[in-house]
Specification:
Layout: H1 9-22, H2 32-36, H3 49-54, E1 57-60, E2 63-66, E3 69-70, H4 71-78, E4 82-86, H5 87-100, E5 106-111, H6 118-127, E6 130-133, H7 136-144, E7 152-154, H8 161-170, E8 174-177, H9 180-193, E9 197-204, E10 226-227, H10 231-241, E11 245-251, H11 262-282, E12 286-288, H12 306-311, H13 319-330, E13 336-339, H14 343-346, E14 350-361, E15 366-370, H15 379-383, E16 389-391, E17 401-406, E18 415-422, E19 430-433, E20 454-459, E21 462-467, H16 472-475
Parallel strand pairs: 4-20, 5-6, 5-13, 6-7, 7-8, 8-9, 9-10, 9-11, 11-12, 12-13, 15-17
Antiparallel strand pairs: 1-2, 2-3, 4-14, 14-15, 14-19, 16-19, 17-18, 20-21
Helix pairs in contact: 1-5, 5-6, 8-9, 11-13
The structure holds ligand LLP.
Ligand LLP is lined by residues 111, 114, 132, 155, 215, 253, 256-257, 290-293, 340-344, 379, 383, 438-439, 443.
């Protein structure tokens, strides 16, 4: 039987330490000695920390597998489109991040919006995760999954009275406040409910995250947070005027899919002195540095191979680099540090499987029409997001053709890839859109009255159906025609 996610937190620490000693090039990664023990693919069942950490999608016997499960058989049993996630990968990501932050008093609050399936929340809860939520609906999910509101933070610019009451009654760890108007409102709601509200202001540090404009949040022109220059004053006023608030922390989040450490460092260096001041003045107990750690979207499958990391010119941000740069800057604060990773935890742990319905050879392009569309995965349409596409059946040779992979939705923006060089794909062939575990299903819709796909969570050799495919009746549940 293959071994996949098999290392303990202590072992990761040990390996990181050894790696540092042996070679700076390999700092935080498996050592050359470890590397030589491995075959180049994930199919080796390697026990390397690094190897395990990316994801567990790999070819085995000519077919794409997730951990020990053949995706072809999953598509046969459950149909397509189908989301498939690797439990081992998610656990491994949590373990690595937790270990990397080990020197800090820290709390990982998984950003539920990335993937909110109950089974995923339950899995992370069992690992010890807290949660970062942005709605009453997400809080409901966290609680249904057995998650602890006392380890959860509530973000978002437009919280309603009902949501604030719900969070207070649930015993939320902190409500992260995005405006002065909201601060005053939370004080009022807290008074009416008779529960003091633990809050943290979200500071907008005005730092360029260098990411897509729709997922950049830390610049003054973005709607998020309170201007850096005003934060001191707002805390001062809150301490004097709002008796129903507990000033518990300070929060920031500069954007998502950050592939360089620079903006994180810039933001932490800018905000840390303010945090220290607020600790002295108001006794705040935590500083949340938000989420945003980027993942690999290009070469997604190959990045599972250790060799890829050595040969790839532009190395994406690793969790080891993230921690090596930030921990020393955060430790002197002597506060609890919160992180809110979403994509890092689940992004590379999931794929969306779809099947080619038709080939259409136009005068300008060749289109492969598949049975999934922007309703199931909107990232390419919304952010021009790139998702690698790999055939489920391993191609026998290296022949390729340039094609567009398009969905069935009546929109020109309904594509998964344009002018992409792919192996030949015939009608009936199945493909996987890689790195679809984050912001895939959670952003899906019923547009064009298409039912939601099913979701499978693979754990070792066992696939678990964690969400049934919607049936047509689900599409009209709750709807009513006029009487008469
Ligand atoms: N904390 C806050 C306050 C956030 O707004 C977000 C994400 C996170 C944490 C988690 O960020 P992450 O670690 O996942 O980067 N739908 C877009 C991403 C939107 C992110 C929104 N906020 C996408 O598909 O790329």
């Amino acid at each position: 039987m293959l071994r996949f996610f098999c290392i303990s937190t202590a072992e990761i620490r040990l390996r990181r330490g050894r790696a540092k000693l042996r070679s700076s090039k390999h700092a935080g990664f498996p050592t050359p000695a470890a590397e030589s023990r491995q075959s180049p693919g994930l199919d080796s069942g390697s026990s390397s920390a690094y190897h395990c950490a990316m994801h567990s999608f790999h070819y085995e016997n000519g077919s794409l597998h997730c951990e020990g499960v053949d995706l072809q058989s999953l598509a046969d049993d459950h149909g397509t489109p189908l989301y498939v996630y690797s439990a081992g990968t998610i656990r491994d990501h949590f373990t690595r991040l937790d270990a990397a932050l080990g020197e800090l008093d820290h709390m990982i609050c998984y950003a539920v919006k990335a993937n909110s399936n109950l089974a995923i929340l339950d899995l992370l809860r069992r690992q010890g995760s807290g949660f970062d939520i942005v709605s009453g609906g997400e809080l409901f999910r966290v609680q249904k999954a057995g998650g602890d509101a006392g380890k959860s933070t509530f973000a978002g610019v437009g919280k309603t009275r009902a949501e604030i009451e719900q969070a207070l009654r649930a015993g939320i760890y902190s409500i992260n406040v995005e405006s002065e108007a909201e601060l005053a409102f939370i004080d009022q709601v807290a008074a009416s409910v008779g529960i003091q509200a633990p809050v943290a202001l979200r500071v907008n540090p005005n730092v360029d995250a260098g990411t897509h404009k729709y997922i950049s949040t830390g610049k003054s022109e973005n709607k998020f947070g309170i201007d850096f220059e005003r934060v001191r004053e707002v805390y001062g006023r809150a301490a004097q005027e709002y008796p129903n608030l507990i000033l518990r922390g300070l929060q920031m989040h500069i954007g998502s899919q950050l592939t360089s450490i620079k903006p994180f460092v810039e933001a932490v260096e800018k905000v840390a002195p303010l945090v220290a001041e607020l600790k002295d003045a108001h006794g705040i107990e935590f500083f949340s540095i938000g989420g945003g750690i980027g993942i690999v979207y290009q070469d997604s499958l190959d990045s599972g191979k250790l060799a890829w990391w050595d040969t790839h010119a532009e190395k994406p941000l690793t969790i080891e680099e993230y921690a090596a740069e930030l921990v020393p800057r955060l430790k002197p604060l002597g506060l609890r540090i919160l992180v809110e990773p979403g994509r890092f935890m689940v992004g590379n742990a999931g794929v969306l499987m779809t099947q080619v319905l038709y080939e259409k050879r136009g005068s300008a392009k060749t289109f492969k029409v598949v049975d999934s569309g922007m309703n199931d995965l909107i990232r390419p349409a919304l952010y021009e997001g790139h998702h690698d596409i790999v055939p489920i059946k391993q191609p026998a040779d290296t022949t390729t053709e340039v094609v567009d992979i398009v969905g069935p939705i009546c929109e020109s923006g309904d594509f998964f890839a344009q002018d992409r060089e792919l192996p030949p794909l015939a009608e009936g062939d199945r493909i996987a859109l890689m790195s679809a575990g984050a912001y895939g299903f959670t952003m899906a819709s019923n547009y064009n009255s298409r039912p939601f796909p099913a979701e499978i969570l693979v754990d070792g050799e066992t696939p678990h159906l964690i969400r049934k495919r919607q049936v047509l009746d689900d599409l009209i549940a709750g709807e009513q025609v006029l009487p008469g």
